[in-house]
Amino acid sequence: MKIITIVGARPQFIKAAAVSRAIQVFNQRHRSKKQIQELLVHTGQHYDYLMDKVFFEELELPNPDYHLGVGSGSHAKQTAMMLERIETVLQKEKPKVVIVYGDTNSTLAGALAAAKLNLPVAHVEAGLRSYNRTMPEEVNRILTDHLSTFLFCPTDQAVKNLSKEGIKDGKTILVKKVGDVMYDSVLYYSELAEKKSTILQDLKLVGPQSALRHAPRRVHGSPVPHMVQGAVRIPNYYLATLHRAENTDNPKPLKSILSALNEIAKDVPVILPLHPRTKKMIKAYRLFSEAQGIKLTDPVSYLDMLKLEKNAKAILTDSGGVQKEAYWFGVPCFTLRDETEWIETVRSGWNVLVGRGEKRIIEEVKRNERRKKPPKKKWIFGDGKASEKIVRTIMT
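The structure assignment produced for this chain is given below.
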């Protein structure tokens, strides 16, 4: 069976790596039977080394069979170029299934091109909703779900969201809760990150004077360690990530968020790996003075990011993936948005929606200093075998 996987942005590289490993395992177990041939198509949506190639290297993903070289551009231009080039590949290769991930323009273009050619679309991370249609990602999610044949949901809530829109398991559509493939990746790469990443030393976030404590062995009953087993250093920094258009493409929210991070950094260091878009807009709006107290870095690799997340005092982010990773590591999270598609992390008490207002962000972070960590909740993102379930379901 020939499958085409379409990726374009760094979160998709992480998700695709998990499913590709599961495909390899499936092929090894069924050597005498029908094998899966996976072809990887990279749209080129992310093309900078620190956002692209380093992820392929760390995740041990094979080089793409097709690199479409689309690059940046307006939503219309970028999606249209992807659509045209993906269609050419699909017409040539004639796959049985096309797999798309998440909610980017690459996701929508892949789903639309496949659906127009009457090819089954498998959407990994189906059913997510923020119910904010001003977000390009929300539009991409909705359209992709309505084009898909296989809808692989990470949570029960995602299944319920699809049901509300009339997308239910039936004769021609399969809706299945499989768990979160990013959790698969965190389980697989977490220990490797602890062994290989030197990011804490590189950024001088640990030193001989740092206090030590004993880390808990489990978070929420999962096998992911909150920190290195045994004696570890007490977190002495906040980690921040900022990349969404609604936070960066308008000077008012960007200035407000940076000012809040700058104020927080007066007491505890704040590390902000700069997404290319964020760096560009800070420069365009001349907001470097608002960020003068923040430790700005280049984008970091996946292993470095896991190490930073796992050892942070708390995380401030507008990223969906980082919200979940904070939850899995048992690190308090403050989401720089008014809504989230990962509502489970909020209901559990580990994630707080703080919006973009400077005062609210600062108040919530200070309040966290006095808060007790929430009790452990039922594990809601699966058992770390989502990728295996996806591959087995498609083959069945």
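Interim note for the steering committee: The first helix runs from residue 10 to 29. Residues 199-370 form a domain with the Rossmann fold fold (CATH 3.40.50.2000).
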